[in-house]
# Entry
Amino acid sequence: MPEKFEVGEGKLFWHDDQRLHLLAMLLEMAGLRRALGLCPPEVVRLALAQPETTPHVPQPIMTIDLATLYAATEQAKLDDLPAYEAAVLAQVPPGTDVTLTGRAPVWLYLRVAHALHGRVRILSYESPVTGRIEIYNHNPR
# Structure
């Protein structure tokens, strides 16, 4: 079990698979019989009789080309950094897997990566030279 959890935008985890992973760990520690004892037996029977309604859907990877953030001026400017961060945050839904790419200064990559921390599940960098490199991964699997 992790030492600490991060809460972002009022949610402990973004995906059901993360919540189920935590629940499984807690049930293993507390014991299934004790946990089921908290519920009335008829509620347990009804829940077990109903089919699963939420299938697992793999998350697509969103690719962001950082060069598009300053394409209008053809040069990234430190003064425009808050606008670059806001543009990235506006297009990335919470819990998304994101790959950053494109010609951009290192400071822009660092600030965007920092802005996305706690919002995205997996952040990667990709270039033709390196291929895909994982920066951080908050996926419990």
